[in-house]
């Protein structure tokens, strides 16, 4: 019994309860602070709600992948618990396997089913989908706090939580309301994995865990590390089931482990704590990921295959082997510097064995560093997510990094890495080494692809907080805090406390606020005034037009379809058709327009070349839009579909960006970028402007010239016009180059064309006579333009035109176009003019119309 001054007694049984109560009380202020920061983080992310939930009832999810996630979510709810694995409604006529992880959609689906009492309405589903990324983004504050806390104390944790709450750039963008994508789930679960992996290592080392404790069932030692290791494995599995490329963090764990084993060996310390943690965590992960494997997909890392189980089991083997070697070194008292050589030798032997046993896995392992950390070239370099953080227009730059993370944040992260690196040489703690390895690999990842910028935002927050609190340590902030606790018992004591405050302590706090917190706060407030502009409202209107005014392709939109047998194509109904556009817009066409795009943001259906200009230019969207004649473009459409009697697409959708700024990306995918510009003498100097090769391209013929003169392509709908200086400039150059007089004005931002057989208008004139056909096209926007062709009659005076427009209007069951000739076609030759009308059946069936 213990007797307290007040006379209260406490038995030994009461002490744990009192210690727990004391611990709860001491942590309560920090828990409350983290909760407040989390709610602020959520408020920041839902600020732009008005730009997502539009007044007309449309929910404008941000960018293309969020729309696709909502599609997979709706299919899941329609067929729950079965999920779509293969989707024939995209990449027509091939379809696409879905590489998105199932967990993100399942979390939203379960939330919707619970809140909707088993039958959620579409409004509820849309609301949950829109707010879900904001909630996950706000929850990320929690693991960031704990990592910061165990790295540098409570102050570091709180500051790191504040910084990640406001962190601008891709992390904020991908966790804002409406950005319903798995990126934020990746960030949350990968950070939770690091947090629990760190806690497992810390507790296992503090308790001096040995493998003998496991054999002897010493629960006092193994209980806490075991719990944290199991949860780390669960979080790694959650990360894997959010994104199949999650082996990136397996790499983080393995690189850290190898270095930690080597350092422990040099310091003559046991690494059993590390082996125990790694074996348990990745064994749990292998078990949890097993039910989601599709064995027929081989060993691809982009789908859920045996690759994911194999790599997790491989990690278990690595931790086991490294622990065994270290114990043998200690038992035989071998010199420490032999250990790295032994690790290197075993690593080489392991790679050789993998090459023999599974060449596919060996290839993935060897190519992984270049895939993740290397700068992509050719077409893939034009993908926004896949482009390097540090290269723009093939030139090195830090401007994007400064813009994403703020200048002070980015520089603080680099300095923080340097400080942790110095600590390694001074015998760093395991948690310091883990954060160092994690941060360096994430830095290398953003060098390769800026899609990992949302990961690195977390590292920046932690590293910046770590630096900031080192500054507070230098000015003895903890002593000041203790003085405050002991001397300030009421507000009246505060003035007396101020005499203990030193100027350097005030300046340190100001530096943290001004240099670290204020820049990210300002950037966050600026960004969250509204979400991104994609999809453009014109695209929404154009896709809805496709949905309601084009023929039903005969597919059950929310059905789950079986993937075709290997080597075979999906069996589409005869009514099915594709929609050709640039890959950026494929998900909009599918999810808003309910139509089947030929290419999509999975980079499927783009065609072109990958290795060199000497390769065959594969059919796809890049080859179609860069084709130098109508005949060449049509050949691409026909080559896309394996049926020689069917074209790959019935509709072509273009926008002003495809005709201007995005045209460069199309040429890059074909690896044939030269010749689209040429120098012109303008206002006393040469200026590079679009050339003949550009104006011959199918994209220019369609969008800039409205398809005028084309035989089998007709404009059927256009949206309103936007002010785009480039489009007007291109038309000015065209008029200069060809002596033409097309109106130098902006036209429909999005234009929809239909590929038809075309009616055959035939007649006779004098032999070898120049014959013209012309009509005025009136669009649904009230704009007019001239459509015309010219030909020469043969030696017997016969002539023929193939024309795509019907003068008699649409027919039931076919395209309900709102753009058509304002009157009949006019044929002229010599002093003769004739009018001819063409019906829709003749256009669709390629029938002859005699003059």
TrEMBL record:
Compartment(s): Cell membrane
Domain Archaeal glycosylation protein B peripheral: residue ranges: 758-849
Catalytic activity of the protein: an archaeal dolichyl phosphooligosaccharide + [protein]-L-asparagine = an archaeal dolichyl phosphate + a glycoprotein with the oligosaccharide chain attached by N-beta-D-glycosyl linkage to a protein L-asparagine
GO cellular component assignments: plasma membrane
Keyword Magnesium carried by entry: yes
Domain Oligosaccharyl transferase STT3 N-terminal as annotated: residue spans: 47-471
Keywords tagged on the record: Glycosyltransferase, Magnesium, Manganese, Membrane, Metal-binding, Transferase, Transmembrane, Transmembrane helix
Principal location: membrane
This protein's pathway: Protein modification; protein glycosylation
Xref: InterPro entries: AglB-like_core, AglB_P1, Oligo_trans_STT3, OlisacTrfase_arch, STT3_N
Domain AglB-like core: 537-656
Membrane-spanning intervals of the chain: 28-46, 128-147, 156-172, 184-204, 248-266, 273-293, 305-325, 337-357, 401-421, 433-449, 455-472, 506-527
Pfam families per UniProt: AglB_core-like, AglB_L1, STT3
Cofactor(s) this protein cannot do without: Mn(2+); Mg(2+)
GO terms for MF: metal ion binding; oligosaccharyl transferase activity
EC code: 2.4.99.21
Topology of this chain in the membrane: Multi-pass membrane protein
Gene3D superfamilies to which the protein is assigned, alphabetical: 2.60.40.3390, 3.40.50.12610
NCBIfam families hit by this protein: archaeo_STT3
Family: Belongs to the STT3 family.
Protein name: dolichyl-phosphooligosaccharide-protein glycotransferase
Origin species: Methanosarcina horonobensis HB-1 = JCM 15518
């Amino acid at each position: 019994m213990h007797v307290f001054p007040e006379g209260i007694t406490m038995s030994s049984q009461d002490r744990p309860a009192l210690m727990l109560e004391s611990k709860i009380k001491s942590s309560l202020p920090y828990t409350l602070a983290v909760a407040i920061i989390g709610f602020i983080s959520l408020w920041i992310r839902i600020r732009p709600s008005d730009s997502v939930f539009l007044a007309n009832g449309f929910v404008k999810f941000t960018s293309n992948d969020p729309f696709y996630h909502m599609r997979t979510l709706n299919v899941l709810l329609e067929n729950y618990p079965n999920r779509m694995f293969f989707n024939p409604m995209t990449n027509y006529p091939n379809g696409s396997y879905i590489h998105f992880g199932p967990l993100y959609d399942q979390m939203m689906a379960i939330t919707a089913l619970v809140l909707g009492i088993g039958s959620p309405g579409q409004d509820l589903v849309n609301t949950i989908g829109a707010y879900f990324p904001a909630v996950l983004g706000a929850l990320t504050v929690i693991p960031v706090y704990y990592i910061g806390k165990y790295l540098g104390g409570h102050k570091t944790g709180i500051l790191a939580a504040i910084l990640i709450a406001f962190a601008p750039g891709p992390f904020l963008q991908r966790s804002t309301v409406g950005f319903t994508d798995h990126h934020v789930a990746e960030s949350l679960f990968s950070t939770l994995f690091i947090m629990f992996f760190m806690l497992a290592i810390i507790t296992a080392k503090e308790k001096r865990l040995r493998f003998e404790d496991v054999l002897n069932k010493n629960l006092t030692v193994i209980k806490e590390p075991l719990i944290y290791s199991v949860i780390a494995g669960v979080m790694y599995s959650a990360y894997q089931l959010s994104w199949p490329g999650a082996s990136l963090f397996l790499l983080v764990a393995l690189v850290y482990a190898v270095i930690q084993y080597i350092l422990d060996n040099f310091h003559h310390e046991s690494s059993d704590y590390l082996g125990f943690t790694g074996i348990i965590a990745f064994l749990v992960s292998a078990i949890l990921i097993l039910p989601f494997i599709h064995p027929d997909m081989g060993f691809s890392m982009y789908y859920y295959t045996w690759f994911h189980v194999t790599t997790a089991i491989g990690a278990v083997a690595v931790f086991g082997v490294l622990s065994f070697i270290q114990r043998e070194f200690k038992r035989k008292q071998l010199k420490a510097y032999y250990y790295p050589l032994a690790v290197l030798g075993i690593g080489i032997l392991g790679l050789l064995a993998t090459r023999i046993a599974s060449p596919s896995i060996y290839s993935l392992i060897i190519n992984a560093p270049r895939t993740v950390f290397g700068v992509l070239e050719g077409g893939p370099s034009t993908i926004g997510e896949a482009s390097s953080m540090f290269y723009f227009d093939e030139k090195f730059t830090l401007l994007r990094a400064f813009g994403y993370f703020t200048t002070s944040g980015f520089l603080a992260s680099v300095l923080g890495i340097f400080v942790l690196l110095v600590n390694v040489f001074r015998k760093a703690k395991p948690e310091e080494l883990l954060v160092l390895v994690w941060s360096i690999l994430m830095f290398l990842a953003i060098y390769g692809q800026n899609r990992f910028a949302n990961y690195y935002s977390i590292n920046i927050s932690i590293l910046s907080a770590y630096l900031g609190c080192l500054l507070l340590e230098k000015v003895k902030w903890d002593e000041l805090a203790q003085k405050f606790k002991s001397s300030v018992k009421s507000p009246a004591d505060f003035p007396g406390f101020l005499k203990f405050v030193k100027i350097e302590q005030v300046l340190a706090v100001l530096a943290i606020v001004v240099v670290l917190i204020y820049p990210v706060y300002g950037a966050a407030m600026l960004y969250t005034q509204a979400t991104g502009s994609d999809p453009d409202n014109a695209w929404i209107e154009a896709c809805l037009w496709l949905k309601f005014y084009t023929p039903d392709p005969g597919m059950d939109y929310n059905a789950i379809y079986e993937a075709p047998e290997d080597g075979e194509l999906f069996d589409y109904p005869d009514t099915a058709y594709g929609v050709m556009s640039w890959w950026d817009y494929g998900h909009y066409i599918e999810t808003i327009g309910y139509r089947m795009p030929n290419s999509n943001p999975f980079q499927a259906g783009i065609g072109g070349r990958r290795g060199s200009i000497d390769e065959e230019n594969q059919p796809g969207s890049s080859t179609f839009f860069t084709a130098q004649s109508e005949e060449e473009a049509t050949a691409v459409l026909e080559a896309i579909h394996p049926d020689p009697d069917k074209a790959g697409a019935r509709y072509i959708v273009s926008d002003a960006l495809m005709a201007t700024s995005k045209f460069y990306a199309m040429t890059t995918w074909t690896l044939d970028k030269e010749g689209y510009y040429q120098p012109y003498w303008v206002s006393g100097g040469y200026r590079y402007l679009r050339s003949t090769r550009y104006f011959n391209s199918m994209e220019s013929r369609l969008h800039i010239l409205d398809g005028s003169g084309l035989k089998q392509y007709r404009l059927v709908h256009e949206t309103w016009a936007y002010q785009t200086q480039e489009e007007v400039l291109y038309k000015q150059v065209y008029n200069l180059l060809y002596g033409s007089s097309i109106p130098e004005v902006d036209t429909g931002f999005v234009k929809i064309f239909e590929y038809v057989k075309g009616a055959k208008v035939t007649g006779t004139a004098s032999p070898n006579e120049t014959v013209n056909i012309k009509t005025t096209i009136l669009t649904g926007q009230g704009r007019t333009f001239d459509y015309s062709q010219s030909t020469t009659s043969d030696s017997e005076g016969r002539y023929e035109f193939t024309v795509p427009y019907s003068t008699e209007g649409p027919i039931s069951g076919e395209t309900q176009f709102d753009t058509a000739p304002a009157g009949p076609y006019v044929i002229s030759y010599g002093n003769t003019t004739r009018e001819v009308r063409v019906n829709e059946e003749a256009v669709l069936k390629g029938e002859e119309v005699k003059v």
